[in-house]
Amino acid sequence: MLLINCPYCGPRPEAEFANGGQAHIARPADPMSLTDDEWAAYLYMRDNTKGLHHERWRHANGCGRFFNASRDTTTDVIKRTYRMGERPEAEHQGAKP
Amino acid sequence: MTDTYRVRRGDGAESRNAVHFTFEGKSYQGLAGDTLASALIANGVHLVGRSFKYHRPRGFVSAGSEEPNALVGVGATQSRYTPNLLATQVEIYEGLVAESQNRWPSLETDAGFLNEYFSAFLPAGFYYKTFMWPRMAWKKLYEPVIRRMAGLGRAPAEPDADRYTQVFAHCDVLIVGAGPAGLAAALEASNSDATVILCDEQAEMGGSLLSDRSASIDGMQAADWARAALDELRKRPNVKLMSRTTAFGWYPHNFVGLNERVTDHLANPAANQPRERLWQVRAKEVVLAAGAIERPLVFTDNDRPGIMLADAARTYVNRYGVVPGKQVVVFTACDSAYRAALDLKAAGAKIQVIVDLRKSASGHWVDKARAEGIKVRSDSIVRGTSGRLRVKSAQISNAQGGDAETVACDLILMSAGFTPSVHLFSQSRGKLSYSEELRAYVPGESVERERSVGACKGLFALDSVIESGAKGGRDAAAKAGFPPRGERSYTVSARSVGADAFIGSVMADHQAEKRAWVDFQNDVTAKDVRLATREGFRSIEHVKRYTTTGMATDQGKLSNMNALGVVSKQIDVAVPKVGLTTFRPPYTPTTFGSFAGQSRGDLFDPVRKTSIHPWAEAQGAQFEDVGVWKRAWYFPQVGEDMHAAVARECKATRESVGIFDASTLGKIEIVGKDAAEFMNRMYTNAWTKLEPGRLRYGVMLREDGFIMDDGVVGRMATDRFHVTTTTGGAARVLSMMEDYLQTEWPDLEVWLTSTTEQWSVIALQGPNARRVLEPLVEGIDLSADAMPHMSVRQGRICGVPTRLFRVSFTGELGFEVNVPAGYGRAVWEAIFAAGKSYGITPYGTETMHVLRAEKGYIIVGQETDGTVTPDDAGLGWAVGKAKRDFVGKRSLSRPALVREDRKQLVGLLTTDPKAVLEEGAQIVLDPTHPIPVPMIGHVTSAYWSATLNRSIALALVRGGRSRMGEELSIPMPDGVIKAKVVDSILFDPKGERLNA
Amino acid sequence: MLSPAIMRSNALSPMRSSGTTAASATTLSILPDAAKLVFRGKTEAIEAAGAHFGVKPSLEACRFAAVGGRSVYWLGPDEWLFQAVNEDPIEVFGGMSVALQAQACSLVDVSHRSDGIAVAGPTAALVLNHGCPLDLSLKAFPVGMCTRTVLGKASLLLSRSEEHVFHVDVWRSFAPYVWQFLDEARSLS
Amino acid sequence: MQKFSALSLLRAGLTGHVGWQRQWRSPEPKPGYDVIIVGGGGHGLATAYYLASRYGVKNVAVLEKGWIGGGNTGRNTTIIRSNYLFDESAGIYEHALKLWEGLSQELNYNVMYSPRGVLMLAHNIHDVQSFKRHVHANRLNGIDNEWLSPEECKEFCPPLNVGGSMRYPILGGALQRRGGTARHDAVAWGYARAADALGVDIIENCEVTGIRRAPTGEVVGVDTTRGSINAKRIGVVAAGNTSTVMNMAGVRLPLESFPLQALVSEPVKPIFPCVVMSNTIHAYISQSDKGEMVIGAGTDVYTSYTQRGGLHIVNHTLDAICELVPAFRRLRMLRNWGGLVDVTPDRSPIVAKTPVSGLYVNCGWGTGGFKATPGSGEVFASTIAKDEPNKINAPFTIERFRDGAVIDEAAAAAVAH
Ligand SMILES: Cc1cc2nc3c(=O)[nH]c(=O)nc-3n(C[C@H](O)[C@H](O)[C@H](O)COP(=O)(O)OP(=O)(O)OC[C@H]3O[C@@H](n4cnc5c(N)ncnc54)[C@H](O)[C@@H]3O)c2cc1C
Ligand SMILES: NC(=O)c1ccc[n+]([C@@H]2O[C@H](COP(=O)([O-])OP(=O)(O)OC[C@H]3O[C@@H](n4cnc5c(N)ncnc54)[C@H](O)[C@@H]3O)[C@@H](O)[C@H]2O)c1
Ligand SMILES: Cc1cc2nc3c(=O)[nH]c(=O)nc-3n(C[C@H](O)[C@H](O)[C@H](O)COP(=O)(O)O)c2cc1C
Ligand SMILES: [Zn+2]
Fold it and tell me: Which of B166, B185, B205, B408 is the most buried (most CB within 10 A)?
């Protein structure tokens, strides 16, 4: 059970959270203007990063907020959590394993 | 029987109570504090089990949790019977019943021993090479035979009578292992404000100190020092001591699983004791002080009862006060066996000879042995043994070969050095490094917040063990934010036994080696390991899987390094290059019940009930599980089956009035100035024009365009919606809404609150519904004009506040009365009383399903299955065509979603009105088509309709709406049923009744 | 015409009898009914709500504030629970709604959504830790703290009113589960 | 290839088993191959075997970064069945099941395919409806699957807690008698040995680190930890690592990799005669021929390449097992491990050509691809050899996600494995 630092409540056990998949995938502003390929990319394509990965969690059994976490998928070490709307730090952006 | 092998215990505590137990049906006496192993040894019993494959007679190899041989079944009754327990860990209590395993008819004469004679034909992996012909014989003949041979103990056959619990715990410092290293760590770490947990798998804490007669610490005998240290720790409020508690697994983020055995050692456990308790500990810092495990030597016939690890024998003598043998041959590659020999000698055993593998034996311990008159042979090996049910002699020769001398004995001690217990360290994903000196892996770089100390780090001299423990304890407390208040010093007086070690087979010439066991329990010999490498299984992972070495219940604690040694030598690749198999949880086998904890029966999952549930129960309702909810399914009256009850309930509702508990529906209150805009985005429908006081049926899609949920939505005010969802969909819908709101549209001023459980919902349906309600309602005009179909009003009913919906899921004039849940049952009963004169009839979900099916209303999850679009379900009308966007809209125009031949919802009327279709039945055009028959759809709902006096069905059929009137076939195992495609609305298509 | 005596029922009423049977240092009891409102909205609005309610809501995460029988629990950065023990939900809701009319917020009456359990005694934290994965030491979970969390397979609102007294607020249909779970835990600890 | 038989075993036994040869060679990589298969799991090895045995492509190498069979092939609970709902899935899994039935003989390697029956339990009315839908569809597709009443379930699998104190009582079950298990390791080894005998190079400890493409786009070879190797065609069968490998060719796939756990109990005498699956309470259990209970656990909710997972997943698995068989509460867990499963949005596999010429992919088998091993290998071999999918794997394209032609068994029935 991971220990996840909710930006609002502090470190809490994974049991209180729901995972929301890869972060920073904005819903297109005008979906109808997208090609089928572009829409499919939004719906389904994920980086599936091996290494530092930015993902969404919701403190579902806590404060209820969504936030982001940067986790290394090769170790499960969470480097940082940050609020919705914030960007991952530059040093964290690269997805090198 | 009396215990003739009993000697004085090292600590002089001789006033131990006698304890009686049975093994193999025979009664024995032991002393309190004995394990089953020490008690049997006290009685001269060494034969305790049979090996897995060859059924070789086996005795005790160890004195601890690494034991591969001495597996027993324990328990007087089936509901408390446990197989595969280790006699070296089972503590005896008055009345304990234990039996051996994997033998028939008896332990002494075991028919399975026949395998032994065929052993030449049963090498590693033999089963992959044979049993293939004739083809069916594997299933019918070979496999059943092999299966019969499988397994060790027998599984308990009756439900477990015990209970288990789990506890989450937190601490600043968790220390695993309470030997000298762990005790020192605990003393230091707890000399601060840090909270400390110290656990040890054994009944008594102290680890190796309990077996030590020669060492002293702070002027005290080792075991006394341990007890004094424990006394001191016990006094500290920040320390929790947990004996009989195994740290079995390391999970990410310093989360460690401990399993506490609470009652297994008690004859009469108290009622409030669970059998085991699973502790899930989040530790800021961990100190691993798990010690080291002695390694066997691999030599021919090294598996006979009476062949034992040297340090285990030392533990039996010094700690338990029993001598495992009187005529002893010692075979060793290191000094520590000398210490064991001396301790056994002191206890009265005769040491025939110490056979030392090393070229030359010298130093303190060797000198001491010689000085005590013990014969020492260096550069020599034990090359074979004899004795069927107990070892009788050892054949000893020079290491390089030559003539063998036979020495009589009843005990052979062996030691190839010690393997540090790096299990938890490795589970934490710390990197291991190979120590050439120890011939073992030791902890390298850490990944988690932990450190290893003492023998599990590869330190074996007691002073350095204690020093590392103390330092580890201080360091852990400091890292956790609690620097200790001081340092204490320890004076240790102990002679080191050095770190010499050996791995692999002792025979210089492998051709001369007969069978020498590497993995005792799984009967893997050095030959098997070599065969595997010859056959190309060179990765150690392949060797493991091909030979099964290290896969037994001891998980290679004794065998892995020796297997590695054999492989390394055979393929001439350095040990670290050969690699190492992965350490996995649990450290020792751990009870299923403990993992399950309290989650059983009614606590397996919450049983959610509505506030009206007890009333339904009292009426004799049958219930069905819908998600975690219990819902009233139907209300049988005396003599009725489900069909009769449902027919009656349907009729009563259509003819007069029925009452239904709809409380499980999900409810969400959506409030804020942008509420309508938010609804527009979430649902396919358009909401802007819905006026306060009106209801609308809403459909919600997933972003991929398929129906996710539906429900009736009431607009309570311009900025307030009362949304309902399906019973199972409530949580899903709310979290999807929150997701969009928080992450896509944070600018919207709208907030969500779950009100599922705030409201009880009482559906009153049927032509007399209004008449029943009217007298109970205050402040609401129920007339058709004032309150048309699909409207909502607020007022009071029976004096309590209500949101009264005029809505119908039955096609009848209907209301859904929402009242605060605490009043649900009372209001229900009041309505029921008021309805008595109209023959009001309670109905359950089954009737609800029939009534709505007659009307062609879909049920999400029944007519839809996650692959159905609104158009497929005939809900195209609910999709706001003019809307620029809503969740799922873009997906609806994907090529596969606009195909003409998609499955569409239609009604089906069987040609034979009496024939009720089966839900899930497949629909075809040509039932005579050879298999595979092309299928064009399936029946989603099918019932007997009492109203229509015939069967009805809904179905999803390819291009269904263009097949109106067509006759289709539904091939069933016992014949083809014909049915005609019709509109999905089968009853009152104009909706006159619900508008009444 | 109207039924004169409609009594509010509590999902835990059937549990009442099993209150303190087991020999345990921890007791379970049912908390009195209360008016409960979920407030969600912007910071200005929460201040106005607090002012009207007479209890200043905590802006600090996971804390509750109480004055007499009234308390306000922080549930999330835009969400608070207003609770008034033994008060009429309709009145409390009505008053608050008026006070918040001009505010950007949502107020929803959830008085009947949940029931309350008091877990009291020197081993209360240990009993709760049978299913709740939080650190319930005084240091990590001081008096005055509240948070939504889980217990076994249920979600709930947990708060600590005294060193040895915790309150559990749990949705009605989960309440019997939570009660039974805690009852078994205390009887086995 | 040295023939395996009772006789050869007997003969070898008399001579101390010194004469056994390597089951597969350990060749150095050649400069180039007609086809390179990336990934030495069951699917990759089967692909190589069928390329050589059925499609005449023998200049083939299988590149494996570790040891063959060390991925999910070596970590799965070995449940085999074919009673899937949709025609597309039923087609590919039944194709596999038919191959399983003769696989030991075909490979001359006893893979211990054991058709002991797979019983899927229904615990609520929705399950019953859904399973019956399967039974009917399977019957018309020529796939055996029958409905059992609770009593019949009990008769077929006596340890089950039927009518007992279960939170979700067993309301019946769907039984596929031809379903069962096979020895996972033997599948990898058997295919490797048979492929090797046909000339396929199986190269272990050889991690693919790059996919080389010509300026015109098509693949020309791979970079590996053992050097560069040319290839005319490349088939990627890397399960959980597929995204990583395909990124090397610039191809993005709709995949996410999750930890999936399994565990075994200590071995006990035979007591559990078949495979039992319960999707509703998440329990998957059978007893191996060695005696352990082999139990499938759940996936963690987050993507991870660590091949482990959380303790709470194991807790939930075992509470379900103990509900199904309360006597098993006293059994003990011997070992618990994790695999790395690659999951597509519709949880059905992709076995297809890719936008890159000469590059093929076989992935997305998620939590349930062991059962497909022979069929998947066979159709993938055909696809590579003919440069076009055959009828069976034609629906399992990448493009289905663009078009919306998803094959969503799980949504249709909430059925995994
Ligand atoms: C716990 C668990 C239980 C399961 N239970 C079942 C079940 O009961 N029934 C069922 O049908 N299925 C089950 N599955 C799923 C099944 O195991 C897989 O679908 C199947 O084994 C996949 O086989 P594969 O050959 O595609 O993958 P793998 O066996 O994983 O093979 C892929 C190989 O590719 C290699 N590789 C990766 N990257 C590279 C690279 N860059 N270069 C070289 N090589 C590389 C890997 O090392 C690996 O050996 C289960 C899976 C797990 C994890
Ligand atoms: N060559 C040698 O002579 C040699 C070799 C090894 C050890 N030793 C001696 O052994 C001692 C080492 O001390 P130490 O404290 O490091 O080890 P120790 O063996 O004294 O104590 C380790 C303790 O950890 C417990 N333990 C192990 N794994 C556990 C788990 N997973 N969960 C719970 N408990 C677990 C054991 O029951 C044991 O009590 C010293 O006295 C040293 O001299 C000597
Ligand atoms: C069907 C099956 C049965 C297994 N049986 C055993 C067993 O009896 N003993 C054992 O130690 N491991 C057993 N394992 C687990 C392996 O030891 C190992 O954990 C698994 O292959 C994953 O590899 P890893 O743990 O080395 O990462 C079994 C694995 C599978 C897939
Ligand atoms: Zn939070």
Answer: B185
Residue range D163-221, pLDDT digits in tens:
777 999 999 999 999 999 999 999 999 999 999 999 999 999 999 999 999 999 999 99
CATH 3.30.9.10 fits D118-179+257-343, yes or no: yes
Tell me the average pLDDT across D273-287.
96
Q: Is 70 exceeded by the pLDDT of residue B223?
A: yes
Confidence band for B9, pLDDT divided at 50, 70 and 90: low
The CATH number assigned to the domain with range D25-109+183-254+346-412 reads 3.50.50.60
| pLDDT tens-place string over residues B470-481 | 999 999 999 999
**Among B546, B502, B557, B494, which Cα is nearest to B524's?**
B546
Tens-digit pLDDT profile for residues D292-339: 999 999 999 999 999 999 999 999 999 999 999 999 999 999 999 999
Confidence of residue C18 (pLDDT cuts 50, 70, 90): low
Query: Shortest Cα distance from B701 to chain A (angstroms)?
Result: 14
Ranking B508-517, B575-584, D41-50, D344-353 by mean pLDDT, the lowest is B508-517
Q: Do B281 and B307 belong together in one domain?
A: no
Full domain range(s) for residue B527:
506-583
D344 C-beta closer than 6 A to ligand 1: no
Answer with the one of B493, B518, B547 that is the final residue of a domain.
Answer: B493
Confirm or reject contact between A94 and chain D (CB < 8 A): no
Residue A97 lies in a domain: no
Instruction: Note whether D350 contacts B: Cβ–Cβ < 8 A.
Output: no
For residue C144, give how far its alpha carbon lies from the nearest alpha carbon of chain A (Å): 15
Probe ligand 1: pick from D367, D393, D396, max atoms within 8 Å of CB?
D367
B14 and B146 part of one domain: yes
Burial of D106 per CB tally in 10 Å (0-12, 13-18, 19+): middle
Establish if B626 touches chain C: CB-CB under 8 angstroms: no
Strands B967-972 and B950-958: unpaired
Q: Show which of B556, B583, B610 is a domain's final residue.
A: B583
What average pLDDT score do residues B543-552 get?
97
Q: Which chains touch B (3 or more CB pairs under 8 A)?
A: A, C, D
Average per-residue pLDDT in chain D? 96
The dihedral over CA atoms of D116, D121, D127, D132, expressed in degrees to the nearest 10, equals 40
Q: What is the CATH number of the domain that holds A64?
A: 3.30.2270.10
Mutation test residue for ligand 2: of B65, B89, B208, B502, the one with most atoms within 8 Å of CB: B208
Gap between the Cα atoms of B954 and B849, Å rounded: 11
Q: Please list the alpha-helical segments (H only) found in B209-353.
A: 222-235, 310-315, 336-346
d(CA C30, CA D131): 43
Q: Is the CB of D112 under 6 A from ligand 3?
A: no
Domain total in chain A = 1
Our count of domains for chain B comes to 5
| Neighbour count for residue C133 (Cβ, 10 Å) | 24
Inform me whether the pLDDT recorded for C4 exceeds 50: no
Q: Do B404 and B462 belong to one domain?
A: no
Encoded tokens for B630: 């219990």
Same domain, B451 and B543: no
List domains and CATH numbers for chain C. 23-187 (3.30.1360.120)
Is B891 in the A-facing interface, judged by CB distances under 8 Å?
yes
Domain assignment of residue A18, yes or no: yes
DSSP state of B161: -
Ligand 3 contact via D89 beta carbon (within 6 Å):
no
Mean pLDDT, range B723-739, rounded to an integer: 96
Global pTM reads 0.97
pLDDT in tens, C65-109: 999 999 999 999 999 999 999 999 999 999 999 999 999 999 999
Which domain does A88 fall in, by range? 3-24+33-92
pLDDT at residue B14 in the model = 59
The SS3 of residue B881 is: coil
Residues 340-379, chain B: which have Cβ within 8 Å of C?
none
Sign of the dihedral defined by the CA atoms of residues D249, D253, D259, D261, in that order: negative
* Assigned domain for A78 exists: yes
Q: Where are the alpha helices (DSSP H) in B215-363?
A: 222-235, 310-315, 336-346
* Pocket lining: B473 vs ligand 2, CB cutoff 6 Å: no
Here the tokens at position A24 are 């920073």
Of residues A1, A9, A15, nearest to C147 (C-beta): A9
Q: Is A77 contained in some domain?
A: yes
Residue nearest atom 19 of ligand 2, based on CA coordinates: B291
Residue B138 and residue B33 share a domain: yes
Query: For ligand 1, is residue D236 a contact (CB within 6 Å)?
Result: no
